[in-house]
């Protein structure tokens, strides 16, 4: 069992840290919100992010965005300098590729970018997917710990590759969800039932995760957010954030993404109309013309 520092105990970080405590690790935690630290019973609350990092073999961050990660790890009194020289720093936040690479280059420690998919339910159940960028030896050391919080741990390549995988995956998810919503709305206008479209497309070439696992209309997939008035799930505001990261990375790389850009525009509108707190599949209401 290892000494682990964990910083950022929000919707995702708290259940992830709880799973590390459950696995028997000695976990020191820190969050700017003191109440968040109480959400991880059995962990030791630290006085600062740097104090949580000190003496730890693995230092995890699960923070909102790139600026928070850069400041927490590299800023004055930062966690990287406070950590052991042989520590592995693992950032599980979803952030931009450029910041992940800059932190990897500047932290002076082994650094992995390891964003996740699976949401709060996956974090609680310990079934997250980790997509990991960084050196192979650091990956080999951290992978057993990641498997205590997740079911699938994928090495993606060098620094930033985990964030690149996350951005590409979620852009595909946004696009398949939007076109699936459009197909259901077209079916409604053509007198084709939701169930009939589902029965055909789920067995045909229109098949996707957005259809078969996360169907945006109620009925065909009883567990999907459509059956609970689009309570998230995966909030549209987070999808918008991830699309922004994908489009930002594309711009920096000189790649034109016409479908991705359109998806970003549609989710911007959905969030502006008040849909940000809804599941991202709730965009079907806007596609139908009945509002966010
Ligand atoms: P959250 O807002 O619930 O939690 C973030 C936590 O970080 C808060 O408790 C906040 O107080 C803390 N924090 C912020 N700055 C800090 C600092 N400098 N030091 C210490 N604590 C600090 O966010 P979340 O939903 O847990 O998401 C975290 C990351 O995971 C984000 O990058 C998000 O995009 C990503 N993510 C979220 C989901 C999801 O379904 N919620 C799914 C996959 C990935």
Automatic annotation (TrEMBL):
Catalyzed reactions: 3-hydroxy-2-methylpropanoate + NAD(+) = 2-methyl-3-oxopropanoate + NADH + H(+)
Transport in keyword set: no
GO molecular function, one term: 3-hydroxyisobutyrate dehydrogenase activity
Pathway stated in the Swiss-Prot or TrEMBL entry: Amino-acid degradation; L-valine degradation
Gene3D superfamilies found in the cross-reference section: N-(1-d-carboxylethyl)-l-norvaline Dehydrogenase, domain 2 (1.10.1040.10), NAD(P)-binding Rossmann-like Domain (3.40.50.720)
Pfam families to which the protein is assigned, alphabetical: NAD_binding_11, NAD_binding_2
Domain 3-hydroxyisobutyrate dehydrogenase-like NAD-binding: 160-286
Domain of life, source organism: Bacteria
EC code(s) of this entry: 1.1.1.31
Signal peptide interval: none
Cross-referenced PROSITE patterns: 3_HYDROXYISOBUT_DH
Keywords: Branched-chain amino acid catabolism, NAD, Oxidoreductase
Domain 6-phosphogluconate dehydrogenase NADP-binding: 3-156
Coiled coil start-end: none
InterPro entries tied to this protein: 3-OH-isobutyrate_DH-rel_CS, 6-PGluconate_DH-like_C_sf, 6PGD_dom2, 6PGDH_NADP-bd, HIBADH, HIBADH-like_NADP-bd, HIBADH-related, NAD(P)-bd_dom_sf
Family designation: Belongs to the HIBADH-related family.
Classification via PANTHER family: 3-HYDROXYISOBUTYRATE DEHYDROGENASE, MITOCHONDRIAL, 3-HYDROXYISOBUTYRATE DEHYDROGENASE-RELATED
Full protein name: 3-hydroxyisobutyrate dehydrogenase
